[in-house]
Amino acid sequence: MFRKMIFREPHPLSYQPCKTGDKMTYELNENELDYYQKLRRRMQRWLSNPEHKQNKYAEYIMAAPDIFHLLVKLTLDPRVPIAIKSKLGIAIAYFMSPIDIIPEIIVGPVGFVDDIAVAAYVLNSVMKVVDPAIIEKHWAGDHEILPLIAQIIEKADRMLGGGAWKRLQKFLKKKNLNGHADTDAG
Q1: Do 121 and 68 contact (CB within 8 A), yes or no?
Q2: pLDDT tens-digit profile of 4-44?
Q3: Close Cβ partners of 133 (under 8 Å, ≥ 6 residues apart)
Q4: Angle between helices 82-96 and 113-126 (to 10 degrees)
């Protein structure tokens, strides 16, 4: 099954372009969606439920696909140092892992709050080293990335609850993901 999507400007993802009149359409096969696309659709379906719209962390949960996209794009950018890319890689692996503090497979999209918190923690350290223009270039979200990351980190303990954020921070510091980055050129 194919769906047609119409974009007025080039979309940040890679679709097969098809010219239809004066508009550019893109066809994508539902079976070939990448992780970002699947995650975005999952979040959109979740948020379409009025009960879920009331979740106090819905805004952050909806940012999950864009945060994941940013992690991947920064990892692929040649201007980002290798040491930073390894940190980004760990955050990507945590995002994609079915085994984490709050498993998505059990609680649904709400389970992404720990993934979002880990990504924000890593991105916070990355933003201390990487040129903000590079980060802005790769950010596909609707909100400004710097305030969003600060808000997520500020609310992470409440989002995760029960001191889980402090335990997760301790683990991340052991893995040297706390902002004390090597800046070897990469």
Answers
A1: no
A2: 434 334 444 444 554 555 554 444 455 555 888 888 888 88
A3: none
A4: 170
